[in-house]
Specification:
4-stranded antiparallel beta sheet, alpha+beta
Amino acid sequence: MRSATSYFNGTLYRKTLARFWPLWGLWGVGWLFLLPLNFLNSWLRYSRQSSSNALRFMLQDAENVPSLLSPGVFLALLFAILCAMAVFGYLYNSRSACWTHALPLRREALFTTQYLAGLSFLLLPLAAAGVLTAAVEVSFLPMEQWGTALSALLTWLLAQSGICLFFFSFAAFCAMFTGHILALPAFYFILNCLVSGLWALVDALMSEFFYGYWSSSGVLTVVEYLTPAHALSRAVNYGVGDEGNQLSSPVTVAVYALAGAALFLVSLYVYRRRHVETAGDVVSIPLVRPLFKYGVSFCVGLCFGMFTVVFFNFYSLTALIPFILLWSAVGYFAAEMLLKKSFRVFRAWKGAAVMAAVLLALCLGCLADVFGVASRVPAPGQVTSVEVMLDMGYPSDGGQTLSAYLDDPNQIQIITALHQAIVDNRDREGLDPDSDNDYTSAYLTYQLSNGSELRRRYAGVPIRAGDLDTPGTVAHAMQQLLADRELVATAYGFDKFLEDGRLTGAWLDRINNAKGELEYNIYVDDYAQELWDAVQQDFAEGTIGVRYLFDQGGDRLKGTYRTDLTFSLTAYRKPGSNQKDYSVQASPASYDIDETLSVTLTPNARHTLAVLEQTGIFKEGYSLAAHETADYDPAYPDTAAH
């Protein structure tokens, strides 16, 4: 009769626990100080004041036990690799590996026993700390508060155990692929952040090659979830939810715990096929060695290639590509040296040449925009909404930047036309500094009808005065955008300014006094509401809030004053809350200025000028400062003659 296969050996398990007791002892003592001893200390400290205070503070501490999960993630990340190095350390020395595998134990029993011993280093001290903490809570807290305190403690114990399960399983998985004790922590920490690191490299490369490229937030979310330490640290944020205090994403913790169980099975499979003779090798699995060489070559080529370009200030693709190829070869030979444990590796030049050819093809493909990344502009019908941040030209007042969500089809069409013009004219030569030209910027985030997202950012986009009447140019598209009064009103924020607060003041900036000198902060608070209403009338008539593409154009200098009219919005914050109360009934002493909105005055703003006449400032010798093209110097606007 055949005996069943044994997957566990109690003697080996106990020997491993006894051998490495300082490791799990340090882990356990740390949690003893963080939980039960900390509770006892709190009771002794608070009870000196009054027993009621002690109970109240202890209950608060008990409810906030899951907040220890945030540092617990990084503690588990560190101790998991130490435990794996301890229990699987016999794999990294030929003598100990041969001796251990000569024991009358199947490989399944060896691996499972050592795995459970290492996992016990983490879980048993957690359980002991949890039991002692529960005893303290039950001893000092009233019975009606036991449920709240113990449920929070159970949340901490389950989540911390799941985190430890994943990180230790991941460390055991890494341990199976190397035969060198120092390579294990290197692989462990590198693989923990490999996805985010690779994405950072690829994202930086695409930013260099693709004009206007801006990585999608959807991709960043996937990258974050595939970076365990980052994803788990966000998942265990403990705060107030709809049903009281809870973890921000317990499902994420559960998924990672299940991933840890799966990694245990994969590690067992690899261990059964691992050769004892690979002890001392950096990579112990033959099938993984090519992946290691080419992966190191790829990462070193991109990372150090871009670093070299930045270090020497060689900001050009013609310099970037050769450096990427050079460093990829260096990375390939360095990986070959680690695998062969020898410096005589230059005969492997064919592999380095293949990797360089692959990277060259990748760079040339990006340069030629084979996949249409740089030239992609969504059709207006494919866009459900677009978040924009656009430079709205001159004057430099509250309407200089348009930052808004747009879902109106006509406005979306204006934005996509501007986007198309920017893309189509990206290869044109720079501006002539002696002509009336300028630059603009545009940051666009499209939400498409298929549920995807497209983001682009363009800084320093040239605008040519000679292109104003040429369709398809940036200047023409920008002129169409500035002609849309709804977009201009959105840029100023007229529709939301008073919704967010209470109008409390107004003042004039850059206004001439009787001596012809510029003054600032000439207050006209008593006429703030009348001035606001007048500005709205003038804006509706198109005599104020007119935008210009070029700062030095004759229309801009003649059509505007240098004087700005600024309105102040006042808000009241309720004590202990982030919520704002803009009601008039709130205590005036509690109000603080929260926002301001400035509007450049114009000679044609008849309603606003009429109200300013009523304020009496002109009778006091003040006058609005006008641009005089003969004396006006844009580099020193405050010193121009008036």
